[in-house]
Amino acid sequence: MALLHRAHLHPTKLELVARWVPQQAWASGDEPVEVVATFRFDDPDGQVGIETLLTRTKNGDLVQVPLTYRDAALPGAEDSLIGTMEHSVLGTRWVYDAPGDPVYVAVLHSVMLTAGSGAELFDEAGQRIVRSTQAEVHGTGELRSEPVAPDRYNPDQRPAETISTTAADGALVTYRRPLVASASDGVRAALRGQWEGQQEAVTLAVLR
């Protein structure tokens, strides 16, 4: 489960990623102007917030932006730091491009291989939260057992549509723009998702 606080954020998540996305090599140059849907995963240790924003840019592109939220800077991850924001309950939060955060890599790897799902959302009173912008995501489980040689994560050499980072036993490929594709097309496992207005499940990430 993911605990959500009633809090004010400065800057907001959208403001933060809107400044960052156009500067990335994989982006079209247009900034995100709205959040279409979001989903979260649980950090087993309860220390790192893990959230993915599915955003729409000015020209209508869907851009997937996985984020991690930390209460202190992550050593060695300076290239993945998107920025900081002030959370009225939790204080300063360091916000990272999640594929550069080992906690995200491990959690997404596990969700895909074990047919896991996104985290349920609860407020501070223990009440379950249901949002219209909440994406429903699930892992496929293992589709084939042989991993391919992993790529190293390099934020300066991101292909136009995807990035790769090393998971426990294979290369984790995260799609920046959700693509309608078969989850079983030559991959070990995948993350699939749907949200309001998206009737057909799309492949959001794959493990090769």
Characteristics of this structure?
globular, five-stranded antiparallel beta sheet, 208 residues, six-stranded antiparallel beta sheet, mainly beta
Order of helices and strands: EEHEEEEEHEEEEEEE
**What is the tally of helical segments?**
2
Biggest beta sheet summary: 6 strands, antiparallel
Uncertain parts = 150-160
- Percent of residues in beta strands: 35-45%
Tally the structural domains. 1
> What's the average pLDDT?
80
CA-CA gap between termini: 28 Å
Radius of gyration: 16 Å
> What share of residues is helical?
10-25%
Overall geometry comes to globular
Descriptive account of the structure:
The protein is mostly beta strands and 208 residues long. The protein contains 2 helices and 14 strands. The protein has helices spanning 13-20, 102-114, and strands at residues 2-3, 9-10, 32-41, 49-57, 62-70, 81-87, 91-97, 121-122, 128-129, 136-139, 162-166, 171-179, 189-195, 198-207. It has a 6-stranded antiparallel β-sheet with strand order 2-6-7-5-4-3. A 5-stranded antiparallel β-sheet has the order 10-13-14-12-11, with helices on one face. A 3-stranded mixed β-sheet has the order 1-8-9, with no helix packed on it. Strand 11 and strand 12 form a beta hairpin. It is globular. The two termini are 28 Å apart.
What's the gist of this structure?
It is built from two helices and 14 strands.
Helix-strand layout with pairing:
Elements (H helix, E strand, L loop, with lengths): L1 E2 L5 E2 L2 H8 L11 E10 L7 E9 L4 E9 L10 E7 L3 E7 L4 H13 L6 E2 L5 E2 L6 E4 L22 E5 L4 E9 L9 E7 L2 E10 L1
Parallel strand pairs: 1-8
Antiparallel strand pairs: 2-6, 3-4, 4-5, 5-7, 6-7, 8-9, 10-13, 11-12, 12-14, 13-14
